[in-house]
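Example 4.3 (complexes with small molecules)
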Amino acid sequence: MSDRRAFVAGNWKMNSDRAGAVALAEGVADLAKNEAWHCEVGIAPAFVHLDAVGRALRAKNSLVRLGAQDMYPGGNGAFTGEVSAAMLKDLGVDFVLVGHSERRHVIGEGEDVIAGKVRGVLDAGLTCVLCVGEKLDEREVGKTDAVNERQLRSALAGVSAGEAERVVIAYEPVWAIGTGKVASPADAQEAHAAVRGVLADIFDAGTAAGIRIQYGGSMKPGNAVELLAQGDIDGGLIGGAALEAESFAGICRGAE
Ligand code: 13P
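Answer. The structure with 1,3-dihydroxyacetonephosphate bound is encoded below.
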């Protein structure tokens, strides 16, 4: 076992209204405080709810970390519709998701864009949760590790070992996201171990040993304990099950 502290984060995606987001954040903050989970906990609401959710967390002196689901890599300026690191930091955001499969495969972000966002997040002093993962057709032809390796190498090119302390990897097999299909603990562990091997090659073994690798894709209270017990699974990035405080708590309780 390593001494990496698990990091369980809720990716709320494009859901809820403001009142619902605040109520959910308050519910998570209360449960986190009362139950003293062993993991670090984060929530990533939609941009338009970040201010209200951040205020709600601060009002409760909560240790729950506030995250954004995306970010423009450059500074303030003429970039219509985009959101900068300065704007996010002003709202108390301290981690940003980059390269989520929905941004890669629905919005169409390429690997160069994703690499630019990783650089922008790190330059801003924020934590980068870099998402990688294979599609079903890629898994079926045995390309899982190759896809993860390509996505890791392109996104992390130019990142130093020192900066890697602010990098978290989320391995999210695309076929498991929102489908109810979950990677078996053994398959997930195998992919995570391969990811850590690539990180050791990009940085060094010691740096790789310190990087948290979250699993994401239909993680629920009922399967979290077994997944989180795997040696290279250091938390989760949770979609659907993070939209209710009690089910999110059920996953956080599983991270010992
Ligand atoms: P689900 O937990 O809904 O499968 O979503 C996972 C995810 O995409 C988290 O980023």
